[in-house]
Amino acid sequence: MSYKVLIVEDLPELLEAMSDFYRGKGAGLWEVVTASDGKDALTKVADNDFDLMILDIMLPGASGFDVCKAARSKGDCPIIFVTALGSENSILKGYETGCDDYVVKPFSLKQLYAKSLGLLKRSKKAEEGDLLRCGMITLNKRTMIVMVNDREVSINAKEYFLLVYLLENKDSILTRRAILERIWKDDLNVTDRAVDTAIRRLRDNLGEASGQIKTVIGRGYRLTEE
Amino acid sequence: MSYKVLIVEDLPELLEAMSDFYRGKGAGLWEVVTASDGKDALTKVADNDFDLMILDIMLPGASGFDVCKAARSKGDCPIIFVTALGSENSILKGYETGCDDYVVKPFSLKQLYAKSLGLLKRSKKAEEGDLLRCGMITLNKRTMIVMVNDREVSINAKEYFLLVYLLENKDSILTRRAILERIWKDDLNVTDRAVDTAIRRLRDNLGEASGQIKTVIGRGYRLTEE
DNA sequence: AGCGATGTGACACGAGTGTGACACGGGAAA
DNA sequence: TTTCCCGTGTCACACTCGTGTCACATCGCT
Predict the structure, then answer these.
(1) Measured between alpha carbons, how far is B4 from A214 in angstroms, rounded to an integer?
(2) CA B24 to chain centre
(3) Cα(B117)–Cα(B108) distance, rounded to whole angstroms?
(4) How many helices (H) and strands (E) does chain B have?
(5) In a 10 Å sphere around its CB, with 0-12 CB exposed, 13-18 middle and 19+ buried, how is residue B185 labelled?
(6) Hey, which residues does B79 pair with through a beta bridge?
(7) Which long-range contacts (CB under 8 A, 24 or more apart) does A85-88 make?
(8) What is residue A37's three-state secondary structure?
(9) Residue B15: which H helix or E strand, with range?
(10) Which of chain D's bases lie under 7 Å from a protein CB?
(11) Does the structure show a pLDDT above 80 at A4?
């Protein structure tokens, strides 16, 4: 089994150094595809399924961000940005666009490679664990991590289990009674309104995705893709 | 056991100072091989297996980069570049070529030596066993050595296995139950609170890195890069 | 408009966790 | 063997923080 990596970099020497490094590791562990300008990169992203991408940001043709966006709309393979020293804004923008990690020039190939392996392992794990998705919400039952638009949000225990219940029954209307029985289990001597409060706090923490929890008056709540 | 170091430098006085310095350290800790021009260096790289190389960039015959490349194609021993003041471009190119560290002339021999030891230790560790890293924490599963910011810390058995578990699942929230089943295995007749205590003692021993272990109330613990 | 249902803020209680101290037990040193 | 020490689990206490409830505002349906 080998991993397919796309390396995009316009400096010929650096591109060669990087691709040589990856090709040299393991016995054919990596299948390396390279591109030296944005247009070329976009074509290759469209035509292939990569396990990992390493993108320079400053590129002729199209920026690394554009390539990243194109890749994200297709799948969610891990992406590492390569950025020039001191361009913190780029890093920030990179994270917003949805990159997973970055290295700052000058960087050591070893360091880049270590990050590659790390990301790869993590994405493998994410595949294995059962993901619950709905609209902008992603919940990983194995890691118990909740993401909204690829940004992690922190929620409390009750809210977490409530969200799991909602996700497992998305589009269904869940009555307060049903929620109480599922989440509160043992101590059912709480008011129906406790559910309201839990829902409220969940909404608060979900931020932009709060609208996905709809109130169905007289019956309960339901989670939608909005 | 001794380490084999190649020092390449065309200034005779400096070359002598460096090699004397390394030879004087420890009782035969270093086996020093020297070269004063690129061609000589290339030959010696081809004929030997070094544990460390110190390369001047400006050389008659062939540049330090060429020597570095030759060395890289052969193995991956740590390399330190020696560069003249102000030539940042060289540094950049150095990292791209795959050097691990550099010093700028004029430099103190002590400083160079410190970097040497650091690199050596790191590369030794890296090749010996699988390293687990997260933030300032580095754990070597083979030697069972735990480092925080390159300083070794001593921890007990339970804490060690707990830390391994955390590192192998970094960013995941691990419930007390999961931890109990993994670490305590056989005798599950211990309280959940035993986990708390283990976590506390691990935190104590991790010192400055203690903050990387986050408490997730109602669910468990998780290790982050902070 | 009127009334029930839901959202929102504040507050208090209690579960969950950090921390120090202690006890038990096994292994090392004498 | 005895003695001591270190590792580890448990308990008690303090404190933080999650969470349910209440009161009031707002919304939505009839």
Answers:
(1) 69
(2) 24
(3) 15
(4) 8, 12
(5) exposed
(6) B53
(7) A87/A57
(8) coil
(9) helix B12-24
(10) 6-12, 17-23, 28-29
(11) yes
**Closest CB to B95 among A13, A106, A157:** A106
The CA distance from B162 to B206, in Å, is 12
The Cα diameter of chain A in Å comes to 70
HSE, side-chain direction, 13 A CA sphere, residue A103: 21
CA gap B30, B19 in Å, rounded:
9
What distance in Å separates the CA atoms of residue A207 and residue A139, rounded to the nearest whole number?
15
Q: Which two tokens stand for residue A50?
A: 């990569």
HSE (CB half, 13 Å, CA atoms) of A71? 31
Q: Give this prediction's pTM.
A: 0.56
The rounded distance, in Å, linking the Cα atoms of A202 and A98 is 24
Which of B93, B169, B217 is closest, CB to CB, to A157?
A: B217
Q: Of A142, A136, A36, A72, which is closest to residue B168 (Cα–Cα)?
A: A142
Amino acid at A16: E
B170-196 confidence digits (pLDDT tens): 889 999 999 998 888 766 688 899 999
| Sequence-distant (≥ 6) Cβ neighbours of residue A19 within 8 angstroms | A7, A32, A34
CA distance A140 to chain B (A): 9
| Nearest residue to A82 (alpha-carbon basis) of A60, A62, A108, A119 | A108
Distance from CA of B56 to the nearest CA of A (A): 18
Structure tokens at A186: 């043992």
The crossing angle, in degrees rounded to 10, of helices B109-128 and B12-24 is 60
Query: For B36-61, what is each residue's pLDDT tens digit?
Result: 888 888 888 888 888 888 888 888 87
Does residue A102 contact residue A81 with C-beta atoms inside 8 Å?
yes
In the block, tokens 């950049």 appear at B92
Enumerate the residues of chain B whose CB falls inside 8 A of the CB of residue A106.
91-96
The whole-chain average pLDDT of chain B stands at 80
Which helix (H) or strand (E) segment holds residue A17: the answer is helix A12-24
